[in-house]
Specification:
Layout: E1 9-14, H1 21-37, E2 42-49, H2 53-64, E3 69-74, H3 80-90, E4 94-99, H4 114-127, E5 139-140, H5 142-163, E6 165-170, H6 185-190, E7 193-197, H7 199-208, H8 215-226, H9 236-253, E8 259-264, H10 269-274, H11 279-287, E9 292-293, H12 298-311, E10 316-322, H13 326-331, E11 344-349, E12 362-365, H14 367-373, E13 383-389, E14 393-402, E15 408-417, E16 427-432, H15 436-445, E17 452-457, H16 461-471, E18 475-477
Helix pairs in contact: 1-5, 2-3, 3-4, 5-12, 5-16, 7-9, 8-9, 9-11
């Protein structure tokens, strides 16, 4: 995928000047070796932070090594002031971890007291208002620290991506979907740039690509991808023209940002003016790592972007759409595993899910729009969906959202797409989330989330949970087990 940051991590040791510096240096080297053994690309900084004067040297060394994510490692107690000044001055994602004692045979000259030092580091991070990643249990021997670094890398990638991200929005958010009409101030707080444009801007650019010489080659590429699912080959010319419009817009308007996503209005005037449904192009762009959220859902686009970084594969945006009928549930009893019927729902959208996640994706027309816009004729302007059953896979549902009261909130839940016939239309799948009914009521409804959820293919809840907190979410909810009631759950 394009459009995602590459993390170059570095590790720097700290040492309180009353401790032997060599202790931290040796332990740092052991961690670096453990990272190499785990096939993690981590640069070892030679500067050791003993005082404030070492901070500038460490920052210069990090810049020379092109490090954009930093692990601050307490090889011993460490000086909490200088080490947190380093975190603040670095500016990029930072993780703190501390050395556990390694052997009972060297508890005099070789004892580092880093367990104690981690407490002071945490206190000083709070004083300086620095958000740093601290693992669940941030103390360990080298192999354990290396595992923590491995968990930090996708979190660092999400933080780097969000701070250099631009959202291209086309068209006002639909009136009938006010839930997607969220305040954007929180996006700027995250570091995201938002470039809102008119649908007329998009249409003008689309028309300017009418005779683009690249269209023919792109049509052939689309036809090859669709294969037997290419039911409407004559609409591909319009779709290719539209895709080139978006790609060129991305490249010409990225500006000072490094990455971008789209949030585009896609109905109802879109069909009458552009003469197609844009879903297939949305799926192709998502496959490249450039998600396009439907219905001008800006937060949906940002959520998709974070999910694709966390999982390392293209994501999609689905409606949390409908329940699974009882007769379908009974018929598929052997495939629903441990899940109750109210743990299941159907995730649906018109046809924007990348083909790689569908059992057999095919070009079709948008059934609902067809009944509204051209009910008495063969599909024409409503063609362009990529439809099919979503293939079985582990999934993570995620959304980060600017609330109406100015807060930034988030949720994350892991589950799976089941191998169950959906018997329906669109890009759709039966999704199982443990305790979905309670999660639906006490998170999605209670915290007023919209119907769109970003869907990552794979389990990445831990990294997304931590990233949302570091980005600044006031609350990160999840599907709590029965043994842990929600604050709003009636105990009777």
């Amino acid at each position: 995928m394009v459009n995602v940051p590459k993390v170059k991590a570095g590790i720097v040791a700290v040492s309180r000047d009353c401790f032997p510096k060599a202790l931290s240096e040796t332990r740092r080297g052991n961690v670096a070796a453990a990272c190499k053994e785990a096939k993690l690309d981590v640069a070892e900084l030679r500067t050791v932070i003993e005082g404030e004067r070492d901070v500038a040297a460490a920052l210069a060394e990090a810049a020379k090594l092109k490090v954009n994510a930093l692990v601050i490692y307490l090889g011993n107690f460490g000086p909490e002031g200088p080490e947190t000044l380093l975190a603040k001055g670095f500016g990029g994602p930072v993780m703190f971890a501390a050395a556990g004692e390694e052997t009972g045979s060297n508890m005099v000259g070789g004892r580092g007291d880093a367990y104690c030092g981690m407490l002071n580091a945490s206190y000083n991070l709070g004083l300086r208002k620095v958000r740093a990643y601290i693992p669940d249990y941030p103390v360990g021997i080298p192999s354990e620290i290396a595992a923590m670094v491995g968990g930090f890398l996708p979190i660092a990638a999400m933080l780097l991506g969000i701070r250099s991200l631009k959202v291209f929005g086309f068209g006002p958010r639909p009136y009938d979907f006010l839930a997607c009409n969220a305040p954007i101030k929180q996006l700027f707080d995250m570091g995201v740039e938002v470039m809102e444009n008119s649908e007329l801007d998009l249409f003008e650019s689309y028309k300017a690509h009418e005779k683009d010489k690249r269209i023919g080659a792109l049509v052939k590429e689309m036809a090859a991808e669709l294969g037997k699912g290419n039911a409407y080959p004559d609409v591909l010319t319009r779709l290719a023209q539209y895709e080139l419009t978006l790609v060129d817009w991305y490249e010409k308007n990225l500006g000072a940002s490094s990455y971008a996503v789209f949030a585009n209005k896609c109905w109802p005037a879109f069909q009458t003016q552009f003469k197609f449904v844009p879903c297939y192009v949305n799926s192709r762009m998502a496959s490249r790592g450039i998600p396009i959220a439907c219905e001008t859902d800006i937060y949906g686009a940002v959520s998709e972007y974070l999910v694709q970084i966390a999982t390392g594969v293209p994501a999609t945006l689905l409606d949390i759409n409908n329940t699974v009928p009882g007769d379908m549930y009974k018929a598929a009893k052997s495939k629903v595993k441990k899940y109750a019927n109210d743990d299941l729902f159907m995730g649906f959208h018109c046809g924007n899910t990348p083909k790689c996640h569908l059992k057999a994706g095919a070009m079709k027309y948008q059934l609902i729009m067809h009944s509204l816009l051209e009910p008495d004729s063969e599909p024409d302007i409503t063609r362009g969906t990529l439809e099919g059953t979503i293939a079985p896979s582990g999934v993570t549902l995620f959304r980060i959202q600017g609330a109406a009261d100015g807060r930034l909130t988030s949720y994350v839940a892991e589950g799976e797409v089941l191998d169950v016939d959906d018997r329906s239309f669109g890009g759709i799948g039966v999704i199982a989330i443990s305790e979905m009914a309670r999660f639906y009521r006490h998170v999605l409804i209670e915290d007023r989330y919209p119907h769109h959820t970003a869907v990552g293919f794979g389990h990445a809840g831990k990294a997304l949970f931590e990233a949302a907190r570091l980005i600044g979410a006031d609350k990160v909810s999840y599907n709590q087990p029965k043994s842990l009631p929600y604050a709003t759950e009636n105990p009777f």
